[in-house]
Amino acid sequence: MLDWRSRRRLGSTRLSVTGVCFGTSPLGSAPDLYGYAVDEDRAVATIRAVFDSSINFLDTSNNYGAGRAESRIGVALRQGAAPSGFVIATKVDANSETHDFSGDRVRRSFEESLGRLGLDRVELLHLHDPEFHVDFKQAMKPGGAGAVEALVRLRDGGSVGHIGIATGTIAVVTSYAETGAFDVVLNHNRYTLVDRSAESLMELCANRKIGFINGAPYGGGILARGSAASSKYGYATAHPEVMRAVQAMEAACARYDVPLAAAALQFSLRTEIVGSTVVGVSSPSRL
Which of 34, 64, 191, 233 is catalytic? Predict the structure, then answer.
């Protein structure tokens, strides 16, 4: 078993992070997605508990809970600074109403995030789910008009330490990773006990010394709670083949008296290419 508290360097960046990264999507309170609500007091208490733990890495986004996750992190930061060496990563997102994901929108999204967090810079900033709002050619427009060039300029100007691409679709994230512009890749739901489709992307990252972060090792929850408690994988109804695979993993874990959630997390942690694994946490007790 690998120790999730041990620190790993993300690719060729200067960032040294714990094997587990604290995911804050549930703290934005999205009952339609997760099946439960999270109020501000609980969210802030969870973040403060993370600051007091061995974890030194937190992942959030401009659009988690329409900005609520970042705002609640900001409240926790105002109550007491994060520990020395703690890494906060966030993501720029398209305008939720107009779907604008131009260079201007990247800059505005980043400014919104800094305002909520109460920070003047972040160590890691991701381009988040671009394929739903802008095609690759538009995102790569030069001169600051495109989203990618805007991110590069934020990094070059010192407002951001490193930049990443964060999305689930393998073909899309591969296209961005191949540009050479990004320091880090965050991919979700494609490297789990029942889906290993991210392996080619992970090999690309290893060869190019791009940091690789694995998100959603529990497939959105089913590999933590089990097939009796959830019928969704990757935030959608699980395909029958996926459900059968989950049930087979449950049976194997039961034979060896190993919790399914532990096996799912260790599967990600044991892989040297994975710099950190994002696990969503919504209460101090779950931490």
Answer: 64
